[in-house]
Specification:
The complex is a heterodimer of chains A (281) and B (300). Chain A has 281 residues and is an alpha/beta fold. Chain A is built from ten helices and eleven strands. In chain A, 35% of the residues lie in helices and 29% in strands. In chain A, strand 4 and strand 5 (91-94) form a beta hairpin. In chain A, helix 1 (14-27) packs across helix 10 (262-280) and helix 5 (147-156) packs parallel to helix 6 (173-179). In chain B, 38% of the residues lie in helices and 27% in strands. Chain B contains eleven helices and eleven strands. In chain B, strands 3-6-7-2-8-1-9-10-11 form a nine-stranded mixed β-sheet, with helices on both faces. Chain B has a two-stranded antiparallel ribbon with strand order 4-5. In chain B, helix 5 (151-169) runs parallel beside helix 6. The termini of chain B are close together. The chains are: A alpha/beta (281), B alpha/beta (300). Chains A and B meet through helix 4, helix 6, helix 7 and helix 9 of A and helix 4, helix 6, helix 7 and helix 9 of B.
């Protein structure tokens, strides 16, 4: 079972829910793995404090030119849709940061002057937090495109009973890449106007991907609008985490709330059960 | 013309509340919401839309199902797993190939290998952007299409429109509400800006993300100020973040206290400045004084 934890708005508690769910599952003795797909700002390690057994570069293929074979025909520049190769005069100029690694230029080159070489865009960190498997992608600062790094994290994941995917905020390509192929999306929201607006956007995105979804309301209080919205759209709310200072403080110092008190740990176990039932249905 | 960009690295630290307050305090500025895939500034500033523009995003491949003979070459060459045999049948075959627009990156490799020329790259409308009027002046904002890509390109569109508008109105400042993270839309929001303000929070996540976003602003050579929001939640960590900021060559611009007025103002569609003159509003006023003084220096 693969569950992605997402939200439109940032800072609603994705990482809190994802790390605590993964921790609770592993404590139950389940074969669980946590994937940090928020490769721009990965924070799961702060809470799970994994021992990292392996670090390896995340690379993607980009073209290189063998000048002795290039006849300056310009076919590569015409093939590239991303301006990652521009032919000026009879010389191809490469802009590897713009490259989508589609391989189109290599295919277009009639003389075999182009080949692909790996370029590092980030780091994959693989380890364990107790019994829990841990994989994190970390995009190099200055790299624009995070989806290839997210793909690398997902590709490195072992088969597990439960895979928890911690997605980045927003509703565009990095989120879609993280959520793609999972069995269930858990949207974490907060009961504020910004939270509700962005929940609406996230719901539209998950609907477009035709995936089942559930909601957790974090910092829940008296506001009823989020509940109304979920009712109206037929989305089940599985849990509400109260707006209490101890939760905020635990987060602030990088502690898991499931370790804070048995109540929260049981809450996480209930949430896991509810998600499992949702997927089985 | 100066561009002030408010970013955070970590999401949900209070960027939009800060930008809304700056709008109240700056008076003569153009506002630009560059968080195009989860835009919220309009919820407070209630812009009246004057112009709507389609945003043409990247191209996507599309297969003409009448012509496809199901050879599967498109699937074989696609590196994005966008092509699969899920299309409707035709006179020749019972099933055809179909491109998943959510997976397609528009590289066109499939177009070149299709033996019957059944595939074409088509431009897609991937959202809308707006020029609006608010109670604090003109605002440019956008809405990325559902599950659309190319948010960086839409951010650039919004920024260009905002600076054109500033020139038209003879205004010297654009205030940009930036997206979270450090990837493509953040880079598109930052490049060439005059000053960045990073809003963070006193949590270990906030500190970690600040370090990465500060590395990004240094990479692009943009002067950067730091402000810790909800500083009193963890004063020790606030001090640590501020020391770390100075060590990274950033200037500390101020602190914002934790104040329930921030959410209360949001619910009433007010900026915190409009909501009350006290509490976090005082901190925000001080913060703006520091930020505008630095902008003034940068101007010379």
């Amino acid at each position: 079972m693969k569950i992605a934890i997402a939200s439109g708005k940032g800072g609603t508690g994705k990482t809190t829910i994802a790390t605590n769910l993964a921790y609770a599952a592993a404590e139950q003795g389940r074969l669980a793995v946590y994937l940090d797909c928020d490769v721009e700002e990965p924070n799961g390690h702060i809470f799970l404090k994994p021992t990292v057994d392996e670090e390896r570069p995340i690379t993607r293929p980009v073209p290189q030119v063998d000048a002795s074979l290039c006849n300056g025909c310009g076919a590569c520049g015409q093939a590239c849709q991303f301006s990652a190769i521009v032919c000026i005069g009879d010389k191809p100029l490469l802009f590897p940061k713009l490259c989508h690694s589609c391989g189109g230029c290599v295919r277009a080159c009639p003389t075999g002057a182009l080949s692909e070489v790996p370029r590092e865009i980030g780091t994959l960190r693989i380890g364990r937090s107790g019994q829990l498997g841990f994989i994190e992608g970390r995009l190099n600062v200055g790299e624009a495109m995070s989806p290839p790094a997210i793909r690398a994290v997902k590709a490195a994941a072992p088969v597990a009973d439960l895979t928890i995917i911690d997605a980045p905020p927003g509703t565009s390509c990095p989120v879609i890449e993280s959520v793609r192929g999972c069995d269930m999306v858990l949207l974490v929201t907060e009961p504020t106007p910004f939270g509700l607006n962005d929940l609406g956007l996230a719901v539209e995105m998950v609907s477009a991907m035709k995936l089942p979804m559930r909601v957790v309301i974090n910092r829940a209080g008296r506001d009823g609008k989020t509940r109304e919205f979920c009712d109206r759209n037929g989305i089940r709310i599985l849990a509400e985490i109260p707006d209490v200072r101890s939760v905020a403080e635990a987060y602030s110092r990088g502690a898991l709330i499931a370790e804070l008190s048995p109540t929260y740990r049981e809450g996480m176990e209930c949430l896991l059960d509810a998600l499992g039932q949702g997927v089985a249905r | 013309m100066k561009e002030l960009v408010v970013i955070s690295g970590k999401g949900g630290t209070g960027k939009t509340s800060v930008v809304a307050a700056f709008a109240s305090l700056a008076k003569r500025a153009i506002l630009a919401d560059c968080d195009v895939d989860a835009a919220d500034l309009h919820l407070v500033l209630e812009p009246e839309v004057l112009q709507r523009h389609d945003f043409i995003g990247g191209k996507k491949a599309r297969i003409d199902h009448e012509q496809c003979m199901s050879c599967g070459r498109c699937q074989a060459v696609c590196r994005f797993e966008a092509s699969s045999m899920t299309g409707p049948g035709n006179d020749l075959v019972s099933k055809t190939y179909r491109i998943d627009p959510l997976a397609c990156e528009g590289c066109g490799v499939c177009v070149g290998v299709c033996p019957v020329s059944a595939i074409a790259l088509e431009s897609t409308t991937a959202g809308e952007w707006f020029v609006s009027q608010t109670r604090y002046g003109p605002m440019v904002h956008a809405r990325l299409g559902v599950a659309a890509d190319n948010s960086g390109k839409l951010v650039s569109t919004v920024r260009t429109a905002a600076s054109d508008l500033a020139k038209q109105h003879g205004l010297g400042l654009v205030i940009v509400d930036g997206p979270p993270g450090i990837g493509c839309p953040v880079i598109a929001s930052l490049t060439g800006a005059s000053l960045a303000v990073v809003v963070t929070e006193p949590t270990l996540s906030g500190l970690h993300d600040l370090e990465r976003v500060a590395e990004l602003t240094r990479h692009f050579g943009i002067p950067t100020l730091v402000c810790v929001n909800k500083w009193d939640i963890n004063p020790d960590l606030t001090e640590r973040i501020e020391r770390q900021s100075v060590a990274m060559g950033l200037k500390v611009a101020g602190r914002l206290r934790y104040d329930g007025a921030v959410t209360a103002a949001q619910i009433l569609k007010q900026t915190v400045i409009e909501h009350s003159a006290l509490g976090v509003s005082e901190d925000m006023t001080k913060l703006w004084a520091t930020v505008s003084a630095v902008l003034e220096v940068e101007r010379q």
